[in-house]
Amino acid sequence: MNATTGEAPGAVIRPDRTLTLALPKTGLARVPGDLYLADIGIPPEVYVQLGIALAPFFGRAYWVRLGCQAGAGV
Asked: Disulfide-capable partner of 39 in 7, 33, 53, 58 (CB 3.0 to 4.6 Å)?
């Protein structure tokens, strides 16, 4: 599955949980089940250089739960 577009070239599994790294991906918004975001240690300065403005959201955690979509376990 393309994490940016959400398009799949063929059959895909329906996960109970999905982990994405560094930043949320738009194509994962409709994936069923819990969606988690993991910190992989990218310094905030890198995001600034890329023109990405975001407030720190991990705090002391290494991962955060972004949400849950209906259809988990279908």
From this structure: 58
How far apart are the C-alpha atoms of 29 and 27, rounded to whole Å? 6
Task: Give the tokens for residue 58.
Answer: 């991990």
d(Cα 20, Cα 12) in Å, to the nearest integer? 16
pTM (predicted TM-score): 0.80
What do you get for the CA distance between the two ends of the chain, in Å?
A: 17
pLDDT digits (tens, 9 = 90+) for 2-45: 999 999 999 988 899 999 999 999 999 888 999 999 999 999 89
**Bridge partners, 43 (sequence order):** none
Which residue matches tokens 């972004």? 66
